[in-house]
Amino acid sequence: MNTLSPKTGTAWLFKMAWRDGKANISRLILFMASIILGIAAVVSIQSFSENLKKNIGQQSKALMGADFIIDSRNSPNTRVQQIIDSLGGANASEVNFVSMAAFPKTNDAKLVRVRGMKGAFPLYGTLETVPAKAALDYQDKNAALVDATLMLQYNLSPGDSITIGRITVPILAALKSIPGSSSISASIAPPVIIPFSLIEKTELLQQGSRKDYQYFFVASDKINLDVLSRDLNPILETENAGLSTHKAASARLGRRYTNVSKFLNLVAFIALLLGCIGIASSVHIYIKEKLPAVAVLKCMGATARQTFSIYLIQIAGMGFLGGLLGVGIGLGLQQFFPLLLQAFLPFSIDISVSVSAIVLGLVLGILMSVLFALLPLLSTWYVSPLEVLRVQAGSYVKSKRVKLLIFAAILGFIYAVTFWLLRDGVYALGFVLGVGFTFCVLAGIAVLFMKGIKHFFPKAWGFTARQSLLNLFRPNNQTLVLIIAIGLGAFLISTLYFTRNMLQSRATLNAATKDPNMILMDVQTTQKEAVKQRIVLNKFPVVDDLAIVTMRLHSIKEVLVNTIRKDSSSLVRDWVLNHEFRATYRDSLIPSEKIIEGRWVPKIELGKPVEISISSNFAKDTNLAVGDELVFNVQGVLMTTLVGSIRDVNWGRAQMNFLVVFPKGVLEEAPQFHVLTSYTPNEEASAGLQRDLVKQFPNVSVIDLRQILQVVEGVLNKISWVINFMAFFSILTGLIVLISSVRNSKYQRIKESVLLRTLGAKNKQILHITALEYFYLGSIGAGIGVLLSVVGSKLLASFVFEVSFVPSLIPFLIVFPAITILVLFIGLINSSAVLKSTPLEVLRREG
Amino acid sequence: MPKILKIDKLEKTYTSGSKKLTVLHDISFDIEAGETFAIVGPSGSGKTTLLGLCAGLDKPNSGSVELCGTRLQDMSEDQRALLRNKDVGFIFQNFQLLPTLSALENVSVPLELQGTKNASTMALQLLDKVGLANRIHHYPSQLSGGEQQRVALARAFCNTPSILFADEPTGNLDEETGEKVIELLFELNREAGTTLVIVTHDLDLANRTQQVLQLKGGKILTNKRQ
CB neighbours of A251 closer than 8 A, spacing ≥ 6? Predict the structure, then answer.
């Protein structure tokens, strides 16, 4: 016999789903609302990152300003020059370095990035200047283009002059944008473009200056850039140069932004998961109320599959509509992202509608709502038609196997979506386990807490206090779901707060300890004493005097660096092979260092090899242990060393830290420059010292840590704004789940309050009971969330940021009470109908 | 007359924790097609459980139920659902109308389940017959108890069932309304030639049927043909 009524098709199931659904439209809309925001968040970020990728692809040449670039840390040697010539010569070139610039008009000085340009850079895209014409004739006029923000800060205008090293040139225009540069990257050392022909006259390209030569090329269509890169890079790398194509550069840029959008996507996905838990909880109550109707349908001959399908269609329909609305809101939201992320983007972005994001939103809407509703929906399958006869049919037992299958499907789906977002199986698994763990911890603590209350029930409390506690355990209660939703919201907010605090404290100077806050770079040995005297004359201390010797690695553990470059199985990280090390030598450790392995050698020991100390991160990235051999190329001279010790370095401390420290008695005669540090009490004093130094020693670059930290703080503020924006979705979803739950239990509450009133309870007492119940829910949820965030932040501090945890009372004093009050407020607002209902109204409804 | 319902040595036990509760014990009887039949007995005597077993809503622990020539215990839940849809009608004490559907939609459902094309027209005719032609778009909450039970009657007869099970059909109605509903029930039954099985406390109602089965403590006390 056929298991379905022969002539009843899918159309009837849809008809029944609609007939039944339209009577419950307000409740179904609430289910829908739980996922709208999560989907909107996922879609907005997904669509924006698609747009970002597309824009980067479209603008890749303009982002680089060329088809490909050859860059070199030093003035190109004969071999590199030969390669440049063999390619037909560069279409444009530049040398850039960091230096102090002075502004005679205001008598100010500032660290800038000087870019000496030759030729028509950019070869693609434009230099945006005001006035625009200046971008074309600054080289002919021997004038400078100065970063527009810098001009605004120092009240400069075209026609004023700028002093760089030994030359003073007129400022021709304000520089609004350069291909490939973001406003964040220009904050610390804003760009100043001058003609290449003026660079030599500045006399700034001397020993120690970290400079970068770049040669820009236009490639003919016949050249395969990938092949060119593959063929030339190995040769160029041996000469400390490299070739980068616009495709490779935009791919790198794309990866960087993809990582950011992956992270934001996960935050959005958490909001969606939270909404789905809300759906599961609401559907549980909804379906429970529908079971008598299901039993009636079964009596009339509907099969289990038919009744199950009716409600499945309803939920899927709501999921589809939720997805549709979420997609709409998400596509609208993404229009704001360019504003939000403006500072981080080195290019303009055109926003268009991403089809894949729309499909993602709809698929997520339907699949997630259905998956999370499946467990409660199963009851419709198992409910016996006997229920209509008021016979206790031994309750419908859900199959454990089916339950397990559903859980597996949910976890599998979350894993699949996460994998799709991250494209990394291990990270996706980590995320699923992490989310599962957080939910389980929240749920576990909530359950324990509730059991605790039950076990140690305060029998001596007054009636209203006891009754409100009992309400937390009422049948069909949503206490657990609400605690998870509220707890997760509180957890996210306060973890964000703690994390921001930690990162900021790491980037804050301690004024009380008078740590150095001025770093003077590129001080030549011949200038050192004069510079020191100048600092002292200005009545500031010279805190550190460090000699810096630049060098590169020649071989590691007796294997040449060039050989390691070709070895794809090597455990040595790429940066190590190309890095220009700035080593120092000294006989003692500084406070930010600690020996973790080997022994510290203060001074070269006669007849023994040179034992150096390396930082732990360098040891890890180079796969080095104490006793391993390293040969450095110290500006043409090979120097064999052994790893004598490995240091743990606190890079977070505003101090001059080094990857490699030599003992005294080795590098003293090597070509070197010096770094001096000082302390100035305020910005004014710092500006005065900078002005004085730039006049006397134009080659010395002064870094004011205070200014850098302001930039860092600005970046952190912007990042936390973005993260807060995403967390907002989770919190709002939590609130919708809360409202939905209050609405779901509204009729039950009305009946209870009427019964209490019939028994003689006053309205005030009922209000008191309701208020206390929401107070318990809010305070338990928020309390657990904030406490968990302390644990989570402490773990983040130890394992991710490697800083000490900075405890704060703010989450306890602000987040905890604010969320509790919010829950109380929403609970009471939504319960007003309960308080206003008269017993007669309820009796009528009952009838 | 052929037997439409054959009950043989029926036994039903419920387990509650470690305790076993026998609700029905050694029940056997037959009902002929077109006959009216009443099951009476005090509360807890097993009347409703017996009705559920006879209608294929539940499975017995032992014994057999043969409804419309088919042994119910050999059928799957879905097969029994199809049988109910084709051959069985129900009337319940608390009406059991679907609260989210209008009167017309409630009556149409069994026909729609059968795939009948003009379900609405047939439902409308039946609602007219029970005197509710002007209330077809009303929802159960907008109807009185008597009206709701009349909608339930229309629903029960719409698929022209071979057998109709009524569980305390007047239990939630006042005497006057209850009487009207019963009149209508017997009238429709006569017209359709349906077998009628009524579970009731009401001995007056039971006496209007052709056969009365009296239960006590899950056992048959008497089985009288009147």
Answer: none
Place of tokens 């499945």: A312
Residue (of A278, A285, A276) closest to A368 by Cα position: A276
State the Cα–Cα distance between residues A292 and A280, nearest whole angstrom. 20
Q: Shortest CA distance to A384 belongs to which of A376, A375, A393?
A: A393
**Residue range(s) defining the domain that contains residue B186:** 33-56+87-225
- Side chain identity at residue A80, one-letter code: V
User: Is B40 part of any domain?
Assistant: yes
Query: Of A269, A270, A445, A298, nearest to A382 (Cα)?
Result: A298
Q: Which residues of B touch A8 (CB under 8 A)?
A: 112-115
pLDDT band at A847; cut points 50, 70, 90? very low
Find out whether the peptide bond into A122 is cis, omega within 30 degrees of 0: yes
Q: What is the pLDDT of residue A6?
A: 47
**A762 in contact with B, Cβ within 8 Å:** no
Pairing of strands A542-556, A673-678: antiparallel
As a whole number, mean pLDDT of residues B137-145 equals 91
Query: What are the residues of chain B with a beta carbon less than 8 Å away from any beta carbon of chain A?
Result: 14-15, 48-49, 51-52, 55, 57-58, 75-79, 81-86, 88, 90, 92-93, 96-101, 105, 109-110, 112-116, 139, 141, 155, 167
CA B140/CA B145 separation, integer angstroms: 9
Give domain status of residue B11, yes or no. no
Total domains present in chain B: 1
| Alpha-carbon span A119 to A66, nearest angstrom | 12
Contact (CB, 8 A) for B15 and A394 = yes
CA distance A749 to A824: 16
What is the token pair recorded at A452?
């605790």
Q: What's the CA gap between B189 and B163, in Å, rounded?
A: 9
- How many Å apart are CA A364 and CA A369, to the nearest integer? 8
The span from the CA of A771 to the CA of A823, in Å, is: 10
Confidence of residue A34 (pLDDT cuts 50, 70, 90): confident
Residue recorded with tokens 């401390």? A653
pLDDT above 70 covers what percent of chain A?
91
Q: Mean pLDDT in chain A?
A: 83
Evaluate whether residue B191 is within a structural domain: yes
How many Å is the maximal CA-CA distance in chain A? Answer: 104
Which region among A61-65, A112-116, A514-518 has the lowest average model confidence (pLDDT)?
A514-518
pLDDT attached to residue A4: 43
Q: Which letter, b or e, does each residue of A6-25 get, where b requires 16 or more Cβ atoms within 10 Å of its Cβ?
A: eebeeebbebbbebbbebbe
Residue B39 sits in a domain of what CATH number?
A: 3.40.50.300
Residue in B with minimal Cα distance to A295? B96
Among A3, A391, A747, A845, the residue to mutate for chain B (most B Cβ within 10 A): A391
Is A557's pLDDT higher than 60?
yes
ipTM: 0.87
Report pTM.
0.72
Which residues in chain A (234-293) have CB-CB distances under 8 A to chain B? 292-293
pLDDT per residue as tens digits for the range A235-253: 888 777 889 898 888 887 7
pLDDT digits (tens, 9 = 90+) for A464-502: 888 888 888 776 677 887 888 788 778 877 887 787 777
Q: Is B21 domain-assigned?
A: no
Residue A232 and residue A237: Cα distance in Å, rounded? Answer: 9
Tokens of A725: 């924006």
DSSP run (H or E) holding B210: none
Both tokens of A716, joined, read 């952190």
Q: What is the DSSP string of A575-604?
A: HHHH--EEEEE-SS--TTEEEEEE----BP
| pLDDT value, residue A1 | 40
Q: Give residue-wise pLDDT tens across range A341-400.
A: 776 676 777 788 888 889 989 999 999 899 989 988 988 988 888 888 765 544 555 678
